[in-house]
Description:
This protein has 314 residues and is mainly beta. It has a single domain (26-312), classed as Jelly Rolls, CATH 2.60.120. Helix content is 9%, strand content 43%. It is built from three helices and 19 strands. The chain has helices at residues 2-20, 60-63, 134-137, and strands at 35-36, 51-52, 72-73, 78-80, 89-94, 105-110, 124-131, 140-141, 146-154, 165-184, 187-197, 200-206, 217-223, 230-236, 239-247, 253-259, 269-273, 282-293, 303-312. The strands form three sheets. Strands 4, 7, 8, 10, 11, 12, 13, 14 and 18 form a nine-stranded antiparallel sheet that branches. Strands 1, 5, 6, 9, 15, 16, 17 and 19 form an eight-stranded antiparallel sheet that branches. Strands 2-3 form a two-stranded antiparallel sheet. Strand 13 (217-223) and strand 14 (230-236) form a beta hairpin.
Amino acid sequence: MRSVTIHLIHAACFLLAISSxxxxxxxxxxxxxxxKLNQVGDDFEDESWKWIPNGAKASREQDEQVRSPTGVSSNxxxxxxxxxxxxxxxxxxxxxxxxxxxxxxxLKIQTLNSGVPGMNSMQMEQDDLIMACSSRVGIIxxxxxxxxxxxxxxxxxxxxxxxxxxxxxxxxxxxxxxSEKEKVFLFSKTVRKQEDYWPGFFIEFHSAHxxxxxxxxxxxxxxxxxxxxxxxxxxxxxxxxxxxMSVTGDGRVHYYGKQGVGNLTAADHLYSGTPYNFSAxxxxxxxxxxxxxxxxxxxxxxxxxxxxxxxxxx
Length: 314
């Protein structure tokens, strides 16, 4: 009897110790938490909002050409990626039904000639639309728990580019410090340098005309786990969705998503991790990708975004 009592006491002490440890959810920050940074973000309510292309798009990733000056929005809150270039169709539109209450304007993003201007690679390419953040408020330390969110409208499946694969991305620009070997003459030394990386979401389409799939479907893909591998998450349907990410002082990234335009809650948590096994030190901005088959005739899927915003919890 005495030994049973001792075991029960040990078990009770173990449970008490476990209950006192911080839960995973306690260490997260729900996107939309804290102070909204009004110097950045956009609600697209200004009827005069427009995109200024400033010539041919950049394609530094493919051919080292930036082709300055890069494109920019009339309110200076968005700019073209010097790495991949801008979508061909960036236009303010009337908010589709079911959007945020009171919203009159949203932003449609679509592309045709992704990749190097004037060249059809006949493979999937992507263009980027980047929110100006670090140029307005500086890069944000992860000790301040930066977080961001957006609403995304998915059109009916018959309006999607008829191609299985990634169609749209919502990602964040993070920075960390890494160590690597650098050769100097006959010797090598370890140097520390800043490394940029871009975790986030992709929206993947499965076409019914693809022999692998019986019907049109869409899925939310998280990029990525500690090895950088993608993970399938929510099954998506046409209409509005709310997506968000937060970065905590321990360097982890937390992913959230839900159907509709309601604010995110702890119940909408999808995954937490250290993508590519990096521990984030700074948050620079969030941005969007649009992808298509760069064949010169096929438009990407017409996605619409609304109210992308950045917050700091500390």
